[in-house]
Design brief:
Elements (H helix, E strand, L loop, with lengths): L5 E3 L5 E3 L2 E3 L5 H13 L4 E3 L7 H11 L7 E6 L6 H15 L4 E6 L9 H13 L3 E7 L3 H11 L5 E5 L7 H9 L3 E5 L12 H10 L3 H11 L2 E6 L3 H8 L8 H8 L21
Parallel strand pairs: 3-4, 3-10, 4-5, 5-6, 6-7, 7-8, 8-9, 9-10
Antiparallel strand pairs: 1-2
Helix pairs in contact: 1-2, 3-4, 4-5, 7-8
Length: 280
């Protein structure tokens, strides 16, 4: 991956155009897998307090021998810590677990609108940024109504909104909203997490056309939509293939055709941000 392949954030910072997801990558094995990814070229490492992988991420960074300044580390706020003081303390706790002095990006993991504390949580992230604990702040799984509420309450627009996006759930309206607001869209489960998207005839046909695999076609679809995919990959081969997506370009028609694979029940776990209660 070219080091020039970066997205510009609305706060002046940058992020690589693809990241490594660390959901279910834990412990000493997780350290080895993340370290391998670093050696293969990953610099954006996405974790969460709820993933229990913050320690592994921090240890892999230390073992890599690569300066901290070259990494972009993201972690996320659990729902049970949406109150202001709790949020600030868990951000500090995440830094302690990671063994880092600052985070490059910190996200509210889910809005939890039934509890309706996400504005308070956003105010805490703004304060954490002011204190230098975090460089960029953003959200995850926020719909337009949630974005509008925090922006209206604080005047501060998130730098990033990380959402479930893959061919069965392309989220065209939400992606357009993020772009309108100057928010970079990240995609979690960008390959559909075990769904049949990787065997869709259209995807397979395009893979043959471009001499790529199905996952690379889908990741390229994200990139051409201006989306930053955060993809889990544990083997060296998988990690390298996921990065090898910058030497070809899908046509506009092909991008649209992939988006047309949308399904009404396309979510991988039926997690509706307006209803989902996260791990609380």
């Amino acid at each position: 991956m070219s080091l020039n392949e970066l997205y510009e954030l609305n706060d002046g910072h940058q992020l690589p155009k693809i990241g490594l997801g660390t959901f279910q990558i834990r412990g000493y094995q997780g350290v080895d897998q993340i370290l391998t990814a670093i050696q293969n070229g990953y610099r954006l490492l996405d974790t969460s307090t709820n993933y229990d992988s913050e320690g592994a991420v921090g240890e892999a960074i230390r073992r890599s021998g690569i300066p901290r300044s070259q990494f972009y580390v993201t972690t996320k706020l659990p729902g049970k810590y949406h109150h202001f003081d709790d949020a600030l303390k868990i951000i500090e706790e995440s830094l302690l677990r990671l063994g880092l002095d600052y985070l490059d990006l910190y996200l509210i993991h889910w809005p939890l609108p039934k509890r309706d504390n996400y504005v308070e949580a956003w105010q805490a992230l703004i304060e954490a940024q002011r204190r230098g604990l975090v460089r960029s702040i953003g959200v995850s799984n926020f719909e337009k109504e949630h974005l509008d509420k925090i922006i209206s309450a604080t005047g501060i627009t998130p730098a990033v909104n990380q959402n479930e996006i893959h061919p069965y759930w392309p989220q065209e309206s939400l992606v357009a909203t993020n772009q309108e607001y100057g928010i970079v869209t990240e995609a979690w489960s960008p390959l559909g997490r075990g769904s049949s998207e990787l065997t869709e005839p259209l995807i397979v046909k395009l893979a043959e056309k471009y001499d790529k695999n199905a996952g690379q076609i889908i990741l390229r679809w994200h990139i051409q939509r201006g989306i930053l995919p955060v993809a889990k990959a544990t083997t060296p081969q998988h990690q390298r293939r996921n990065l090898d997506i910058f030497d070809f370009t899908l046509t506009e028609t092909e991008v649209s055709q992939i988006s047309d694979l949308e399904r009404k029940d396309g979510r991988v776990d039926d997690q509706d941000p307006k209803e989902y209660e996260e791990f609380v």
